[in-house]
Amino acid sequence: MSGQTWDAQRYAENGRFVADLAMEVVGLLAPKSGERILDLGCGDGALTDRMKESGAEMIGCDRSPQMLAAAEARGVRTVQADMTALPFAGEFDAVFSNAALHWTRSQREVLAGVFRALRPDGRFVAEMGGLGNIAAIRTALQAVLRPYGVDAEEHAASFFPSKDEYTALLEGAGFRVDRMALIPRPTRLPGGMEDWLRTFRNGVLQDLPDDARETVVREVVALLRPVLCDSAGVWWADYVRLRFKAVRG
C-alpha cells in the first residue's frame, strides 16, 4: 500500500472534481431502487451520498477514519476496511469504485474480496487511473526527487494498468468483462498544481524535511508549467481513466 494519507478538508477543497466527473461511470453502474451497493474507496462520501438518490442502499467503505467521518457526517453508512482485505461475503448486488483502485498494487487481493462480496451475477463497475495516467506529473516527481534518494514511483505504489492487463486480472479472479475502455481526460485543477501535489502526492512528499519539501514542490511545478499550464494560467492534470463493468461468474 502507498503511504498516502488523506485530509478531508483539503480533499474537499482540491479534489471535489473527482466526484463531479464521475457521472459517466455512475451511469454505467445504473443503480436501482432496492439494490444493495458497496462504494469501495468512498472517500468523504460525496458521490456515495449522491447515488443514494437512486433508491439503492449505499454502503461506503474506506480505510481512512477521517474520510469516513466526513462521509458519516453526510448521512452515509460506512464500514472501515482496507480494500485488500474486505470483510464481506455475498452481500451486495453491485460493487462500485471511483478513483480508488489505483492506490494499491495488490490487485489480486482486491479483486478476490470484491468477488466474495458480490451475490451471483453481481456487477463490479469502476473507474481508476489507467495506462499513461498523470505521466508528466509522475516523470517530473521522479526527476526532482531522485537527488534526495526517493523513488517517487515506488513510494507512491500506484497501479495504472492497460485494458489488456486489467481484463486478464478480472478474468483471473472469476469475472466476465462486459465493458472496458481507456479514456484520456485532461482535468482542470481548481487549486493549481501545487495544491494537487499536496493533496494527491503527500505520501511521496511527507517524509522530506520541510525545507526540502517546499523546494521539491517548486521545482516540480516549474518543470510542469510548460506542458500542463495553459496560456490563461489554468492548470490541467494529464489524467487517463480506465472504466469497466464486469460480472461475477
TrEMBL record:
User: What SUPFAM superfamilies does UniProt report for this protein, alphabetically?
Assistant: S-adenosyl-L-methionine-dependent methyltransferases (SSF53335)
The entry's protein name is: Class I SAM-dependent methyltransferase
Query: Which residue intervals define the domain Methyltransferase type in the entry?
Result: 38-125
Q: Name one GO biological process term.
A: methylation
A Pfam family it matches: Methyltransf_11
Q: Name one GO molecular function term.
A: methyltransferase activity
InterPro entries reported in the protein's UniProt record: Methyltransf_11, SAM-dependent_MTases_sf
Q: Which domain of life is it from?
A: Bacteria
Transmembrane helix as UniProt keyword: no
Question: What keywords tag this UniProt record?
Answer: Methyltransferase, Transferase
